[in-house]
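4.2 Preliminary Data

To establish feasibility before requesting continued support, the project team ran the inverse folding procedure on a target of 1018 residues. The structure was first converted into the token representation described in Section 3, and no sequence information of any kind was made available to the design step. The complete token record follows.
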């Protein structure tokens, strides 16, 4: 019954109901209120009070909503925009392909949802979008995973390359299916029916064409040189495939190399210190953290501008080392006595030395090198050009060729120098290194060993094991010849955050070569043939073109087949009698695979993008991709284009997901949370069980975070999501409920802006400000700022506007202007929120749109989604600066009124604010008085009181009870606010004290009830 509802804690006008009114000082008022509640309200007015009513639920039935609307917001919306939005405004977000190797994690959700929000906003702006999801399918992890999954280890050795490729392909396909299912469940849209996969035949052919173009440009070459090598995976690695362990422990070693003819040093010692060392060996003291490379030593490097000295050690004899390092070395090896000093490093390059482990040592050179510093070691650097990048480059200048006696498993092989056969078959990082140290000790060449030296060291990012540097014959891309052009193209690229520019520029500038060959079966082959006698590579435009055409005919797997007759792979121009070839077994680096993905966009949209700033509008991936996909895309595109452009206009970078303790989420730490657990099940964070938040909650969680930094998966972040999502649902529910609250009236059209009341117009001004700020935030991809702006506006509406209009909505004449004005404002709020929130929580807005009548959406039912309706632009007429300024003053007055009402409430004078009237007193003719006069008709509604009067003197206030008097200064004038007793009686229908007699409803309610009765009779 209506009476029981009114006497509950529910409020018609937004304040608590009449319970708790009675106080000793105001029994009469309390008695009147109670009498009305218990007697007069027994009359049934429930059919005439238009309380909100809607089928839109408080809480979403997540599974049901997903089943009902997921296809609408994804496939249907994507198809609609593709068919209906103009092609000339095409926006392309190119997908950096995730690796098709494992189940999805929260990081995937962050990546995919950010991309989806970007393209959905563009659709809201009326732009057609292209988003083709992709997957990176080749490479070592997949190959190893399928081999490890085989129960019979002996069978692994028997598998052919084609059999391995078949298993790897199936694994990649299965993983893609699972990942795609998850991606789609998150409400992401795209061309899911035709994604790109780096293992697709058309993709592989385009990749080979890029390789051919780079060969023709002179960028590709083969060289025997040191590369990073994974002993576990038996393949070369590029720099982008490394991660550095800061706490790695190596065996740091001091080694002595005897000068071949140290006569000048002996004489210098005699001159400076008078010590006779004739006949005593003089040693160059080196320090290394890779003593296993000592057998491959071919030179010693010194800094030509650094000063060196000759010292004497009781334990290690006569040594040469850098002056700045003497004190540190003495701490390590014991006291050192200086015999001669001030020897320029350049002077040492006149000497030669002998290798302590070679049976026929010969003489080796000392070379000048700028990379030698006084930061560590002895100032003399042992150089093994087969096992060090800087060593290799230095030795190349002096005609010293690299060599490596280490095989693909990281073991010494049979090519070791004479006398070192004991090393064969031993691991360089384990027993082989121990053997080297023993041999050095036996040769009296070992001066010191620190087996626990801690420093940063490169690891294979997949096997998580330390790598070595090993010289092998590999294919390289000459980054040095294209990096200036690549870096220059970045000048016109927008980076977010801006630090990404420096990272990508720095990583690109630091590279000179890119090792693009890998020793695996699962990948795109480097299409090289080798002379079976000389080993020389055949890699010309003619040969590559012929091989690509053959692959197009017979499939890429055919290249990996064991064949005796290779004639069909050899271009006719090279089929000389008696000359035979073998196929190369190297495959391309997976970064080369994914780095050529721009060819898909070029093939599909190249003609449309010729006049554009770049081929693609946005690339967005994790912060590690400055060394990976961003860079490989930039290098391959730059190497094959002369337009001076980068392949992308904007590069966005998002951080990693961290747990509540700030640790990066990883399987090894056991702190990974699957997105499915967050959306559909109770999940645990920091030992606390959390309720599932659904797809909309997951998306809102991603949006509320500043993705340009690492993102914390914490209890607090999910609580904020639950709170925000609940408020958004209640806002939609409140709006929709008021459009279905009465059977007597169907809202058909908006009230014109000029006819709206000032309170309604002020709400629209807030929407205007919201739309402008949100659009700017979306333009900067700042989704967290969008969420913040919406949350702020929701809070303002809930605490103010929605409270102010309840009386109008619930009790005013159903077709009267005041109620229609409020409904008009609510309709605008709905459209704006549906517009602003659709890129972020499309399931929520689609559900609300489904429940909304056409009068709310402003569109016919043919407009099936907010995305079809497009962005809701706030009209410029809403930008009412005078209204904003006036309400800035009125809000201060309302604060004073509320303070007075609180005093009256605490004294027992009133229960709700409707039990009071307010008198405002200002000086006649003042700006403050004029402000109050202008809004006089709306002040009672704004203050949520039954009456509001504007007077010029407090003397005019009637002698009825009054309290809570406040004083403030507005527009330079004093204003007094006084809480007074209402002059009339409380209406049992609307609760305003506006009835003429205690036993009747007020005149407005009487007319409304009468009109409803007439409508009901019809």
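Position-by-position output of the design step:
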């Amino acid at each position: 019954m209506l009476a029981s509802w009114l006497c509950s804690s529910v409020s018609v006008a937004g304040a608590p109901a009449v319970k708790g009114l009675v106080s000793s000082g105001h029994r009469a008022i309390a008695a009147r209120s109670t009498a009305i509640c218990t007697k007069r309200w027994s009359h049934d007015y429930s059919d005439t009070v238009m309380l909100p009513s809607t089928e839109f639920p408080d809480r979403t039935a997540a599974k049901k909503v997903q089943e009902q609307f997921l296809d609408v917001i994804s496939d249907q919306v994507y198809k609609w925009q593709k068919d209906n939005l103009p092609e000339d405004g095409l926006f392309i977000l190119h997908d950096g392909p995730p690796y098709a190797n494992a189940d999805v994690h929260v990081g995937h959700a962050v990546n995919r949802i950010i991309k989806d929000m970007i393209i959905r906003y563009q659709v809201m702006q009326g732009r057609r979008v292209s988003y083709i999801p992709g997957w990176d399918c080749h490479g070592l992890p997949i190959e190893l995973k399928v081999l490890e999954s085989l129960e019979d280890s002996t069978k692994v050795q028997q598998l052919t390359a084609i059999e391995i490729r078949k298993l790897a392909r199936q694994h990649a396909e299965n993983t893609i299916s699972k990942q795609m299912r998850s991606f789609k469940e998150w409400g992401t849209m795209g061309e899911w029916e035709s994604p790109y996969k780096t293992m697709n035949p058309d993709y592989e052919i385009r990749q080979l064409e890029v390789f051919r173009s780079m060969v023709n440009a002179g960028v590709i070459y083969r060289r025997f040189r040191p590369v990073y090598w994974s002993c576990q995976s038996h393949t070369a690695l590029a720099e982008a495939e490394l991660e550095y362990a800061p706490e790695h422990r190596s065996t740091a070693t001091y080694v002595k190399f005897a000068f071949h003819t140290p006569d000048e040093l002996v004489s210098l010692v005699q001159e400076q210190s008078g010590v006779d060392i004739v006949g005593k060996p003089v040693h160059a003291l080196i320090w290394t953290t890779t003593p296993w490379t000592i057998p491959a030593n071919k030179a010693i490097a010194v800094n030509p501008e650094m000063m060196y000295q000759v010292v004497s050690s009781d334990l290690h004899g006569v040594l040469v080392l850098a002056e700045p390092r003497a004190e540190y070395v003495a701490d390590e090896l014991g006291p050192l006595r200086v015999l001669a000093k001030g020897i320029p490093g350049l002077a040492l390059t006149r000497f030669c030395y002998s290798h302590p482990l070679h049976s026929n040592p010969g003489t080796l050179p000392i070379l000048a090198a700028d990379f030698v510093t006084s930061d560590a070691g002895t100032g003399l650097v042992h150089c093994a050009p087969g096992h060090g990048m800087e060593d290799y480059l230095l030795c190349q200048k002096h005609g010293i060729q690299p060599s490596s006696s280490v095989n693909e498993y990281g073991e010494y092989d049979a090519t070791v120098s004479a006398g070192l056969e004991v090393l064969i078959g031993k691991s360089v990082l384990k027993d082989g290194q121990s053997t080297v140290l023993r041999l050095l000790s036996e040769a009296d060449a070992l001066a010191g060993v620190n087996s626990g030296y801690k420093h940063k060291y490169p690891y294979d990012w997949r096997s998580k094991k330390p790598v070595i540097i090993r010289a092998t014959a590999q294919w390289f891309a000459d980054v040095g010849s294209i990096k200036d052009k690549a870096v220059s193209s970045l000048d016109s690229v927008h980076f977010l955050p801006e630090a990404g520019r420096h990272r990508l520029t720095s990583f690109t500038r630091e590279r000179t070569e890119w090792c693009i060959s890998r020793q695996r079966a699962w990948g795109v082959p480097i299409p090289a043939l080798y002379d079976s006698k000389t080993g020389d590579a055949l890699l010309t435009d003619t040969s590559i073109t012929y091989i690509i055409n053959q692959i197009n005919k017979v499939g890429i797997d055919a290249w990996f087949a064991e064949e005796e007759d290779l004639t069909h792979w050899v271009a006719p121009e090279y089929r000389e009698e008696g000359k035979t070839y073998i196929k190369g077994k190297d495959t391309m680096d997976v970064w080369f695979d994914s780095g050529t993905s721009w060819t898909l966009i070029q093939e599909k949209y190249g003609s449309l993008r010729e006049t554009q700033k770049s081929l693609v509008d946005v690339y967005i991936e994790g912060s590690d991709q400055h060394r990976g996909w961003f860079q490989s895309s930039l290098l391959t595109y730059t190497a094959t284009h002369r337009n001076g452009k980068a392949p992308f206009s904007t590069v966005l970078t998002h951080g990693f997901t961290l747990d509540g303790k700030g640790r990066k989420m990883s399987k090894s730490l056991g702190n990974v949370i699957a997105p499915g657990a967050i959306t559909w099940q109770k999940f645990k964070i920091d030992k606390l069980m959390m309720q599932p938040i659904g797809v909309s909650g997951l998306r809102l969680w991603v949006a509320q975070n500043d993705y340009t930094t690492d993102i914390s998966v914490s209890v607090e972040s999910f609580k904020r999501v639950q709170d925000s999502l609940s408020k958004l649902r209640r806002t939609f529910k409140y709006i929709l409920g008021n459009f279905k609250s009465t059977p007597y009236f169907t809202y058909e059209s908006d009230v014109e802006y000029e006819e709206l009341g000032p309170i309604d117009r002020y709400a629209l001004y807030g929407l205007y400000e919201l739309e402008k700020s949100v659009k700017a935030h979306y333009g900067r991809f700042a989704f967290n700022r969008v969420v913040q702006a919406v949350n702020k506006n929701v809070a303002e509406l809930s605490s103010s506007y929605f409270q102010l209009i309840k009386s109008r909505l619930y009790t005013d004449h159903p077709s009267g202007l005041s109620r229609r004005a409020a409904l008009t404002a609510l309709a605008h709020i709905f459209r704006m929120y549906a517009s602003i929130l659709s890129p972020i929580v499309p399931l929520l807005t689609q559900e609300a749109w489904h429940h909304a009548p056409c009068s709310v959406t402003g569109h016919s039912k043919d407009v099936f989604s907010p995305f079809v309706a497009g962005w809701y632009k706030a009209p410029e007429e809403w930008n009412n600066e005078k209204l904003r300024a006036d309400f800035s003053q009125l809000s201060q007055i309302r604060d004073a009124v509320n303070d007075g009402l609180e005093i009256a409430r605490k004294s027992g004078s009133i229960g709700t604010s409707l039990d009071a009237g307010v008198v405002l007193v200002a000086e006649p003719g003042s700006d403050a008085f004029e402000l109050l006069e202008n809004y006089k008709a709306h002040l009672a509604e704004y203050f949520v009181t039954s009456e509001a009067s504007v007077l010029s003197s407090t003397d005019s206030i009637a002698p009825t009870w009054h309290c809570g008097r406040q004083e403030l200064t507005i527009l330079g004038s004093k204003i007094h606010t006084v809480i007074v007793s209402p002059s009339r009686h409380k209406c049992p229908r609307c609760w305003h004290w506006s009835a003429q007699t205690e036993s009747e409803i007020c005149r407005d309610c009487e007319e409304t009830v009468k009109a409803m009765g007439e409508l009901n009779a019809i």
